[in-house]
Specification:
The structure is a homotrimer.
Chain A: H1 8-35, E1 41-43, E2 53-55, H2 72-84, H3 122-141, E3 152-157, H4 162-174, E4 178-182, H5 185-188, H6 190-193, H7 197-204, E5 210-215, H8 220-227, E6 232-237, H9 243-257, E7 264-268, H10 275-284, E8 291-295, H11 304-312, E9 316-319, H12 323-329, E10 332-335, H13 347-354, H14 361-366, E11 372-374, H15 395-415
Helix pairs in contact in A: 1-2, 3-15, 4-15, 7-8, 9-10, 9-15
Catalytic activity (chains A, B, C): carbamoyl phosphate + L-aspartate = N-carbamoyl-L-aspartate + phosphate + H(+)
InterPro entries (chains A, B, C): Asp/Orn_carbamoyltranf_P-bd, Asp/Orn_carbamoylTrfase, Asp/Orn_carbamoylTrfase_sf, Asp_carbamoyltransf, Asp_carbamoyltransf_Asp/Orn-bd
GO cellular component, one term (chains A, B, C): cytoplasm
Amino acid sequence: MSLSSLSTHDLQRDLIVSRLTARFSAELSRDCRQQVPCSPSRSVSMSPSISLPVTQSIYLPRNPKQNNFLSPAKLYQKEHFLCKSVKNEKDSHAISLGNSSTFSVGTKFQLDDVIEAQQFDREILSAIFEVAREMEKIEKSSSGANILRGYLMATLFYEPSTRTRLSFESAMKRLGGEVLTTENAREFSSAAKGETLEDSIRTVEGYSDIIVMRHFESGAARRAASTASIPVINAGDGPGQHPTQALLDVYTIEREIGRLDGIRVGLVGDLANGRTVRSLAYLLAKYNDVKIYFVAPDIVKMKDDIKDYLSSKGVEWEESADLMEVASKCDVVYQTRIQRERFGERIDLYEEARGKYIVDKKVMGVLQKHAVILHPLPRLDEITVDVDGDPRAAYFRQAKNGLYIRMALLKLLLLGW
Amino acid sequence: MSLSSLSTHDLQRDLIVSRLTARFSAELSRDCRQQVPCSPSRSVSMSPSISLPVTQSIYLPRNPKQNNFLSPAKLYQKEHFLCKSVKNEKDSHAISLGNSSTFSVGTKFQLDDVIEAQQFDREILSAIFEVAREMEKIEKSSSGANILRGYLMATLFYEPSTRTRLSFESAMKRLGGEVLTTENAREFSSAAKGETLEDSIRTVEGYSDIIVMRHFESGAARRAASTASIPVINAGDGPGQHPTQALLDVYTIEREIGRLDGIRVGLVGDLANGRTVRSLAYLLAKYNDVKIYFVAPDIVKMKDDIKDYLSSKGVEWEESADLMEVASKCDVVYQTRIQRERFGERIDLYEEARGKYIVDKKVMGVLQKHAVILHPLPRLDEITVDVDGDPRAAYFRQAKNGLYIRMALLKLLLLGW
Amino acid sequence: MSLSSLSTHDLQRDLIVSRLTARFSAELSRDCRQQVPCSPSRSVSMSPSISLPVTQSIYLPRNPKQNNFLSPAKLYQKEHFLCKSVKNEKDSHAISLGNSSTFSVGTKFQLDDVIEAQQFDREILSAIFEVAREMEKIEKSSSGANILRGYLMATLFYEPSTRTRLSFESAMKRLGGEVLTTENAREFSSAAKGETLEDSIRTVEGYSDIIVMRHFESGAARRAASTASIPVINAGDGPGQHPTQALLDVYTIEREIGRLDGIRVGLVGDLANGRTVRSLAYLLAKYNDVKIYFVAPDIVKMKDDIKDYLSSKGVEWEESADLMEVASKCDVVYQTRIQRERFGERIDLYEEARGKYIVDKKVMGVLQKHAVILHPLPRLDEITVDVDGDPRAAYFRQAKNGLYIRMALLKLLLLGW
């Protein structure tokens, strides 16, 4: 069992799949629309911007499902369903949130599950972020807070993660949906009586409309998604993936800095074990002219697979031991916690690594005015508390953005674009 | 403390009570209506079937309550309340779901609590199943999802049972109700500070409208029900009863096979300890021309009390060691898990018992086309996973039926028929 | 770490603050209204009583907050905000519950947080109790059950207290609000990964509109309140405070006896460690002609700080070893549990203390007809169960009053008066 959340194999597969997807996607959606033009078109307008007719896209029963995201096969299946059978029962809940005039969603892809960072390309990210922005408005105005009324989300947590759970549950409830909670799902399943994850999923999908799952085993989310006929969101599967964290990180950079192309990002701290920094580096490679600085104690340096991937994508990167210098150049300093649990008995190594790169007032002194400090939280003392009051300390805003991203994903998975 | 959920004593008591009930019921309801005709009558129609005027029956405050279900005393008390004081406050929530023209509910009985399988006779089962069918429609259409809006259910679980808890909570929320959850009620009560169950119930009834209780002690549900002035549903009390499981099992047979009279049922696996098979055998005795086959390793054979009861009711039964032969004859094969926890240190005996009767492709090969495999879940390897895809594998549909039965019971206990 | 919930220091501070508050409050509110008359006035009428124009008071964003309740500084800040920036987003939820014609709320104070008994004076208590009375009506009629629709309460419990948690969650849901629950918040925070309480609060405030916190450390609630920009309610912080219990105790006395001035109250049991009796004595000192009797085993006698405080306030008090005599004189006998956990290894001392003063049928025999027995629950055998049926046994009604007080506080903190 590897600790790396993005294996070299994954990274290569990703290149192939994404190319295939683009080609098939265009062909299939064109074919489908010409042959079976059942999807109603309608004008949607909520803002003064020009609204174009967009294809209405609706959450569909997906049974059987295949376990490849946005692959040609799934795309075909999806379009096929779209034109053949539509789950009408809960349409009335669906409202359109006003799509941008430039991005014609609905004709290109449909989110089935959220399992790993690799399933998102630049275009999908942009579309999700647009929805997340709408969610910020909804949360503040409470006017659209009913779009998920009547929907039930099950939070199936096989290991506790109160922060992530509350964020998802808040997202669901802010949209008018309801939640079934379990924090000790281990007792539900195999640990207690030997039931397989698959059987548990088949039971829970009978009680709910969407499953948010946290698991202690890498790959568990993928297994759940391939079993479930309702959408599954991976809320972290052991050392594997935590894709909603990856999305909120990129979203936060765009919100704080205003762009993703051309940014300079310093990744600091535990770069070997931190799945967040690995996913972030992976996703940043989708943008142009990005430069990444790695600042880590030797014992937890960024691994070669990510470095190779960045190079293959033409992303400039550099290792540095000088946090001050990096901080003075970057738009984003992404600090992370040195994870004690990775060091076992070697407390001495942990203590050494942990004190090495601290974001404090001195670092803030050289940080550019427009730049920000991010952190996936929880934070120990790798950012000193006297930094919290600085407007460039963006980590609590980042946590809040997790709410908007999760609202957006719940909306997209349950109602479509 | 006996492990049998249906003691011989219970079974005998049942015979006496049910006869008394029928007689008193008819008399009392007639008396009540003649003397104090306060219950409004109204026509209810939702289907094209002919609708008859039915008596409106409303959830009533029941204080003090007595601890015998549908007994003459309780019936009298109930009718008395019906005609004297009606809790008006939440009437507005009540909607009629359309009663069958042949079953005139409301004049015969009112469910106060759901404590044990013995409280249900054939007529009540039929009436509950009818409501459960309506619930299937409600869950799918989401049109009637508000009938329990404003009601609060407390899930008071003194031992964890995530599957059962989620099923009840989903049922409540699908009907628009709300839930107060506690999974570690032991900390709430005696275990921590020595409070009695009765005191805990008196507190919780102040916070909610209905209590769903799971407890580790046989008889706890009955104690709770006799204390509470709001309805109590037993979600399993230790080795005692789990009546909603028994109801969903019978409901599933009717849904899958289309009838209950004249069916042949094979009960397989741990028949000594499994409370579900014991309750199922008990309830099946209420139907005509039923034949039951017991297929169990010697060490966990069906006990004599149930066999005697079946014989006294004229139900044919037979023990068999040949699962293939039984499977070829039956309409329903009800497989159960051999419960390791019953074997203590004797792992060898457990392993021997466990491998003996497996439902696999070979068994499916001899199973009749219209027959089904049931299982209360969780399932280990007593049904092989390659059976899951067979349309006759009905155990996940069975789990789903638990939702409809629980929706029906919540509706009946809170709003009446 | 002291076990006393109301230190002498607190009691002195209280005297000073309350005087300052009264003076500044009058001045500031007058100034504010004259200079910046932005607060709209409107007539509110729900009852046949004469309604006066009252100033509308709205929940406000409070950032930064200061950690002194109703102090001049906070009052100024509050009024300042009231007149400058109003959080409009959720106004539509706010409904007026009909204010008494004699108490012009909104012009005098605004509740920001509920942290300790000392923040309440007689006038505030009276105003809260009035709202609690309205809540009794709302709970029964379910007509106003939507006033908190769209609001999210986070119950952040760092130690389990199912009773208190369910009471708060029921209160929130009875008013149409939603709840994010965590019972094992220790895993959320420092205990697991070393996160500070302050960081946890900053995260949770992004997901919710109000935080109800239970903590194992005295002073934790105050720290949380000074961090959060949303309201915080202390649901018990270790040996510190449990202010909502104190409020419901006083409310219950008023509801049961009909008045607070002139009452005679016997406090019985563990008076040294019980924070409820200490807070109750403190709050009773705000009323006229109160007489308090202390009946406790020597080892758990009421401490001098409270006695001195009562004397300084002119409250008559007396120690007695004769429960029968006290019971015959009092309007209220407030029994408490001897807390075993306080005695450590000295089980003998515990057993001796515990059996000393029992409220039983004999005590009920001398109790006046209008008098009542109260108890904060859970109860062991310091009140015998044969007393429960006596109408003067008011402890379960008292528990129920906790619901109304908490409904009132949630309403006041989220919507204002």
